[in-house]
Write a structure and sequence with these properties.
CATH architecture: Orthogonal Bundle
CATH topology: Cytochrome Bc1 Complex, Chain D, domain 2
Number of helices: 5
Number of domains: 1
Order of helices and strands: HHHHH
Helix content: 55-70%
Largest sheet: none
């Protein structure tokens, strides 16, 4: 690989880590996802009162739209706004986790 490419790749990786919430907060966000979001979207995120939140169900939906939905909710539905409890960065991190090929896993679950 070219040295410039490696430098750019390293900078992107560092920026991604810098944009992530601290590890302790990530654990709290995953717990919120499985408990609070799971109460409507299903404990396994396969759907319930709200739609499924699995990667396959989120294909074609932009990260921007999903982040806005988390923060602003969906008026006229059971989806509340979470902006009083989550930052933009945290909502973006959750969207990244939800869109990963494997569902997010809580470190305490086996």
């Amino acid at each position: 690989m070219r040295p410039v490419f490696l430098i750019v790749l390293a900078l992107i990786s560092q920026a991604s880590l810098a944009d992530s919430p601290p590890l302790e907060r990530q654990q709290a966000l995953l717990e919120l996802l499985h408990q609070d979001c799971g109460s409507c979207h299903g404990m396994t995120l396969q759907g319930g009162l709200g739609p499924a939140l699995l990667p396959s169900a989120l294909e074609g939906k932009s990260a921007l739209m999903l982040t806005a939905t988390i923060l602003q909710g969906r008026p006229g539905t059971a989806m509340p706004p979470w902006s009083s409890l989550l930052t933009q960065q945290e909502a973006e991190w959750l969207v990244t986790q939800l869109k990963q090929p494997a569902p997010p896993q809580d470190a305490n679950r086996h």
